[in-house]
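Final report, closing paragraph on structural work. Over the funding period we assembled a curated collection of sequence-structure pairs, and we close with a single example.
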Amino acid sequence: LGIPAVGRCLDLIAGDLARVPVEIQARDGDGYIEIDSAIADVFRDGPSGLLSGNAWRQKIARDLLIQGAHLDVIARTPDGSVAEITPAEFGTWGYFWDPERQTLTYQAFGQTFLPQDVLHFRRSERILFQGEGVLSQYSTALKMIAAQYEAGRRVFETALPKIKLETDEPLPPDAVERLQQAWRSSHSDASTWSTPIVVSGGMKVGEISQRLDQSQWADAQEFGVADVARCFNVPPSLVDSNNSPTAEDMSAYLEGCLRPLMSAIADEVKLKTLSPGERVQFRTEQLTRGTAAQQAASIRQLIDAGMVSPNEGRAMIGLPASDQDGMDDVFISKNYATVTNETESTPSAPTADDVGADADDV
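Its predicted structure, as stored:
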């Protein structure tokens, strides 16, 4: 956790998981529609009066990434609906699985709970009911990176190369000791870089070893950042300020990093709190919609292809519907339609003025 890139990955993932809108949906024919649900209120407003929805989801994400598991205790009303959800701090709860009787119980807050009374989220579960965190899964690589940071800390604390002081006159042992002590107190670390070196009596100052080149250290640190990002399934461009994430990076981040965590949360909540035919749906569109210019270009293509109406396009970016004529109609641009020559009945290619027209040209 002392590696800066690890902290950046944790903050990024936990923050994105906390801000994504969540819907509770019910099956409607061949699809799903959003429904009102107390569980949706839990995700949005918080599981109890002591914890907001954002803080609750961030805690779940951090526990899953660091420890591999997270436990919440469910308090229900007399009719069985969810009244409150209380997170248990990792290390204060446990579970007991009896393989012979095929029974599972949980211990938290000094009480014993049945599986239906808890939400037990697990990441990368390989052993039944036991998740694994990123820090444990990739402990060897992360320990190596931590050692690199420790080596760098020592290098920059000592900062200066090994120094030798030469003089033609022999010095008694007590004079040598005083010189060494004076040097350590005035020139031993980076905080004393601005202190001038003053010598006299023909004494010369020289180096007998060199410190680690700063560019070499920077290269090692850059590799460590990329390696940490790979451990968390985060594209390096999202944690390295030297690069900007591409659309492919965002898609890989969503599917490879966030989606498994969202699925683990959604499946457990569905199993313990929802009715048959209902599901938890994370609305991830805002993570991949890009800049305002990219959104406008994408929506314009959908409108030109006749896939959405202009008002539906406005709704995609949070704008209200317009009452102008044609805003609810679907149009197909000549760029996507077959054009017929006036003199012939056979189709022809779009004419030059139909191709490449852009908003900048209007």
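The longest helix spans residues 247-273. The radius of gyration is 31 Å. We thank the funder for supporting this effort.
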